[in-house]
Design brief:
This protein is of the alpha/beta class. The protein contains nine helices and seven strands, in the order βαβααββααββαααβα.
Amino acid sequence: MTGQKVVGLTGSIGMGKSTVAGMLRELGVPVFDADAAVHELQGPGGALLGAIEAAFPGTTGPDGVDRQKLGAAVFGDREELARLEGIVHPAVAAMRGAFLRENAQAPLIVFDIPLLYEKGGHEGLDAVAVVSAPTALQRERVLSRPGMTAEKFERILALQVPDAEKRARADFVIDTGGALDETRQQVAGIVKALERAE
């Protein structure tokens, strides 16, 4: 376990974080995806369905959590959101702990955490890599998503730490504004640098 580096991967919506996470996996780097963990816990047969249904009646069904109903139940209500987080966060932390144990021999592991700075998840990491792209490209990517509107995009951005601040606080910035091969080279360079660093 000694010498293992734990890196946080983050970036605002539409910056290309999922693409970069995929590139890391291609390089053999284990990536823990916090969002995927939540989807698994809240999906069909998910481990948290009982607890969520008990706390927020009518928000789950055979397909797992009804995200719209649950969203409506907690949106804009700090206490209810805190209650939901009190159910979800410990379960995600347990999955992260299991992931760490399974990958104890890996020289480098990555935690893919969308709201890393917003939720204080950067504590205890060896480094943070922020995925970034020019604002116009980010906007174009996000607005091309199904069901996305300019208003929705602005609301999401308002809840996220600004890209410039994320870049300023990061140990590494991965620019996804160019060709995929350029991004892939940046990712490979960062992996090499981290695996070499003791």
